[in-house]
């Protein structure tokens, strides 16, 4: 069996930055509790390690002690949360991905100019929820062409279009073309980050050359799900969180396997999966990887 691992697998810049900020705070803060409001990143194993190191993960503002330190998650939060945290006397460490922060400011600034904001992305994803709040909560949001077909856009209003940083490039282009034919006055900000584009392109390239793909990442991770969807178009694809999810009997039938991982997947999980596939024996069966 041949194993091909994507060079683009694993932490993106924004996730790496958020994890580093949290770890520095945990190393230096001794008197104050350090919280994240919601998961810092979308990977349960990575966030659990941070919690083991002392990070408290709060579900809501009410769960955070006054005067504590709060790390804003990589997906960002709405503007109102900064105000609420300041009212509680909290010290804020903003770990919002810079690419997400850029979209937040685009949405905020243009809605102040009276323009409509269209967001291409998942309305229930925390990144999109935050962007929507920065724009006052009235954005038009959709992740499929069908979501926009029923919208009546004003012919007298100018619209600004942004996209979730981890959105499918292929799907974005289709929706963009549709909106160009539907809205008279609009301006696009192509806000899918380069790391997402490169990761998706590399995953597709590998998927086209192998018998099966393994995509590693949190099941709640948007970009991981998109990698799975893309790879599934070209070959049998398995979505796993850890090496424990691998069924040797399922994958041993393939002569070549590709591997990629979401932007929130830590190296230690990727390495564990590679080590499992290359070296493990299960019920006396070897995979016979070409090393």
From TrEMBL:
<keyword id="KW-0560">Oxidoreductase</keyword>
<feature type="binding site">
    <location>
        <position position="222"/>
    </location>
    <ligand>
        <name>(2E)-4-hydroxy-3-methylbut-2-enyl diphosphate</name>
    </ligand>
</feature>
<keyword id="KW-0411">Iron-sulfur</keyword>
<comment type="function">
    <text>Catalyzes the conversion of 1-hydroxy-2-methyl-2-(E)-butenyl 4-diphosphate (HMBPP) into a mixture of isopentenyl diphosphate (IPP) and dimethylallyl diphosphate (DMAPP). Acts in the terminal step of the DOXP/MEP pathway for isoprenoid precursor biosynthesis.</text>
</comment>
<comment type="similarity">
    <text>Belongs to the IspH family.</text>
</comment>
<keyword id="KW-0414">Isoprene biosynthesis</keyword>
<feature type="binding site">
    <location>
        <position position="223"/>
    </location>
    <ligand>
        <name>isopentenyl diphosphate</name>
    </ligand>
</feature>
<feature type="binding site">
    <location>
        <position position="264"/>
    </location>
    <ligand>
        <name>dimethylallyl diphosphate</name>
    </ligand>
</feature>
<feature type="binding site">
    <location>
        <position position="75"/>
    </location>
    <ligand>
        <name>dimethylallyl diphosphate</name>
    </ligand>
</feature>
<feature type="binding site">
    <location>
        <position position="125"/>
    </location>
    <ligand>
        <name>dimethylallyl diphosphate</name>
    </ligand>
</feature>
<feature type="binding site">
    <location>
        <position position="125"/>
    </location>
    <ligand>
        <name>(2E)-4-hydroxy-3-methylbut-2-enyl diphosphate</name>
    </ligand>
</feature>
<feature type="binding site">
    <location>
        <position position="223"/>
    </location>
    <ligand>
        <name>dimethylallyl diphosphate</name>
    </ligand>
</feature>
<feature type="binding site">
    <location>
        <position position="42"/>
    </location>
    <ligand>
        <name>(2E)-4-hydroxy-3-methylbut-2-enyl diphosphate</name>
    </ligand>
</feature>
<feature type="binding site">
    <location>
        <position position="42"/>
    </location>
    <ligand>
        <name>dimethylallyl diphosphate</name>
    </ligand>
</feature>
<feature type="binding site">
    <location>
        <position position="221"/>
    </location>
    <ligand>
        <name>dimethylallyl diphosphate</name>
    </ligand>
</feature>
<feature type="binding site">
    <location>
        <position position="264"/>
    </location>
    <ligand>
        <name>isopentenyl diphosphate</name>
    </ligand>
</feature>
<keyword id="KW-0479">Metal-binding</keyword>
<dbReference type="Pfam" id="PF02401">
    <property type="entry name" value="LYTB"/>
</dbReference>
<feature type="binding site">
    <location>
        <position position="75"/>
    </location>
    <ligand>
        <name>isopentenyl diphosphate</name>
    </ligand>
</feature>
<comment type="pathway">
    <text>Isoprenoid biosynthesis; dimethylallyl diphosphate biosynthesis; dimethylallyl diphosphate from (2E)-4-hydroxy-3-methylbutenyl diphosphate: step 1/1.</text>
</comment>
<feature type="binding site">
    <location>
        <position position="165"/>
    </location>
    <ligand>
        <name>(2E)-4-hydroxy-3-methylbut-2-enyl diphosphate</name>
    </ligand>
</feature>
<feature type="binding site">
    <location>
        <position position="222"/>
    </location>
    <ligand>
        <name>isopentenyl diphosphate</name>
    </ligand>
</feature>
<feature type="binding site">
    <location>
        <position position="42"/>
    </location>
    <ligand>
        <name>isopentenyl diphosphate</name>
    </ligand>
</feature>
<feature type="binding site">
    <location>
        <position position="125"/>
    </location>
    <ligand>
        <name>isopentenyl diphosphate</name>
    </ligand>
</feature>
<keyword id="KW-0408">Iron</keyword>
<dbReference type="InterPro" id="IPR003451">
    <property type="entry name" value="LytB/IspH"/>
</dbReference>
<feature type="binding site">
    <location>
        <position position="221"/>
    </location>
    <ligand>
        <name>(2E)-4-hydroxy-3-methylbut-2-enyl diphosphate</name>
    </ligand>
</feature>
<feature type="binding site">
    <location>
        <position position="221"/>
    </location>
    <ligand>
        <name>isopentenyl diphosphate</name>
    </ligand>
</feature>
<feature type="binding site">
    <location>
        <position position="97"/>
    </location>
    <ligand>
        <name>[4Fe-4S] cluster</name>
    </ligand>
</feature>
<feature type="binding site">
    <location>
        <position position="264"/>
    </location>
    <ligand>
        <name>(2E)-4-hydroxy-3-methylbut-2-enyl diphosphate</name>
    </ligand>
</feature>
<feature type="binding site">
    <location>
        <position position="223"/>
    </location>
    <ligand>
        <name>(2E)-4-hydroxy-3-methylbut-2-enyl diphosphate</name>
    </ligand>
</feature>
<keyword id="KW-0004">4Fe-4S</keyword>
<feature type="binding site">
    <location>
        <position position="12"/>
    </location>
    <ligand>
        <name>[4Fe-4S] cluster</name>
    </ligand>
</feature>
<feature type="binding site">
    <location>
        <position position="193"/>
    </location>
    <ligand>
        <name>[4Fe-4S] cluster</name>
    </ligand>
</feature>
<comment type="pathway">
    <text>Isoprenoid biosynthesis; isopentenyl diphosphate biosynthesis via DXP pathway; isopentenyl diphosphate from 1-deoxy-D-xylulose 5-phosphate: step 6/6.</text>
</comment>
<feature type="binding site">
    <location>
        <position position="222"/>
    </location>
    <ligand>
        <name>dimethylallyl diphosphate</name>
    </ligand>
</feature>
<feature type="binding site">
    <location>
        <position position="75"/>
    </location>
    <ligand>
        <name>(2E)-4-hydroxy-3-methylbut-2-enyl diphosphate</name>
    </ligand>
</feature>
<protein>
    <recommendedName>
        <fullName>4-hydroxy-3-methylbut-2-enyl diphosphate reductase</fullName>
        <ecNumber>1.17.7.4</ecNumber>
    </recommendedName>
</protein>
<feature type="active site" description="Proton donor">
    <location>
        <position position="127"/>
    </location>
</feature>
<dbReference type="GO" id="GO:0051745">
    <property type="term" value="F:4-hydroxy-3-methylbut-2-enyl diphosphate reductase activity"/>
</dbReference>
């Amino acid at each position: 069996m041949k194993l091909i691992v994507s060079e683009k697998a694993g932490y993106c810049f924004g996730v790496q930055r958020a994890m580093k900020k949290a770890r520095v705070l945990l190393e230096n803060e001794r008197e104050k509790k350090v919280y994240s409001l919601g998961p810092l990143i979308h990977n349960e194993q990575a966030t659990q390690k941070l919690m083991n190191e002392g990070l408290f993960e709060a579900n809501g503002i009410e769960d955070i002690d006054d005067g504590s330190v709060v790390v804003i998650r990589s997906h960002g939060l709405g503007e109102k949360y900064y105000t609420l945290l300041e009212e509680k006397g909290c010290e804020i460490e903003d770990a919002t991905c810079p690419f997400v922060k850029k979209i937040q400011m685009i949405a905020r600034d243009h809605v102040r100019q009276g323009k409509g904001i269209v967001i291409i992305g998942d309305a229930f994803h925390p990144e999109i929820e935050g962007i929507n709040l920065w724009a006052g909560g009235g954005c038009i949001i959709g992740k499929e062409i069908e979501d926009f077909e029923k919208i009546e856009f004003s012919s007298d209003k100018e619209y600004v279009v942004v996209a979730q940083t981890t959105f499918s490039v292929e799907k974005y282009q289709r929706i963009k073309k549709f909106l160009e034919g539907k809205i008279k006055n609009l301006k696009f900000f192509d806000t899918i980050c380069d790391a997402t584009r490169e990761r998706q392109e590399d995953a597709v390239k590998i998927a086209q050359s192998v018998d099966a793909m393994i995509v590693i990442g949190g099941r709640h991770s948007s970009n991981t799900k998109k990698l799975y969807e893309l790879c599934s178009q070209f070959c049998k694809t398995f979505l796993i969180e850890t090496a424990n999810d691998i069924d040797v009997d399922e994958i041993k039938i393939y002569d070549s396997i590709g591997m990629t991982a979401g932007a929130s997947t830590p190296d230690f999980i990727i390495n564990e999966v590679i080590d499992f596939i290359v070296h493990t024996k299960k019920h006396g069966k070897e995979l016979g990887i070409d090393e």
